[in-house]
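Supplementary notes for students who missed Thursday's class. We covered one full example, reproduced here. Read the sequence, then the structure, then the short commentary at the end.
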Amino acid sequence: MSYAVKEIFYTLQGEGAQAGRPAVFCRFTGCNLWSGHEIDRPNAKCRFCDTDFVGIDGVGGGRFETADDLAAAVEQKWPRTFSAGRRFVVCTGGEPLLQLDELLIEALHSRGFEIAVETNGTLPTPFGLDWVCVSPKAGTELRQRTGDELKLVYPQSGAEPSDFDALPFGRFYLQPMDGPSRAKNTDLAAQYCLDHPVWRLSPQTHKILGIR
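Structure (token representation):
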């Protein structure tokens, strides 16, 4: 199969357990909870998404005919220095599991990459991923019910932290919902973490720092 990718870029991971870690982000086009077009937002299953995942016109984006082609494009973004460290790629979207498959996982592994995925959890993960981050959305069926971290955008009506904190994830994070109420939502998330210590606060540090 071919792969449609919005953008590929090198940055610091801004969220969750891997925050601060250098990573290549591979953002796939498409999502099963929203078309990405503003006209469709009122009827979307996820109405608060702030990511542009439409088209293949972003930096490094395009249509890649094979897994090897895409893995090579990801590799080109990693620094070519002697002390470059463990290679790390974050597959995101949109919903990356609409496209990410075992062929691509194998191709990325063959180039020395540790592979993380950021998914809404409505699709099962393919075999071979090194790090699974699930971000549940209200009103959807959570099919991926295990992973390394569960990152819940907070607050979400219909998706309460108590709905998820008994699931077998390694870590639990609350991410304050962005937008006009971000400061208030950050206070609410922080207080919830203080009252329920299984949860940790995960602000979007890349937005605070002004990086991608």
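Commentary. The first helix runs from residue 67 to 77. The helical segments are 67-77, 102-109, 182-195, 205-209. If anything here is unclear, bring it to office hours.
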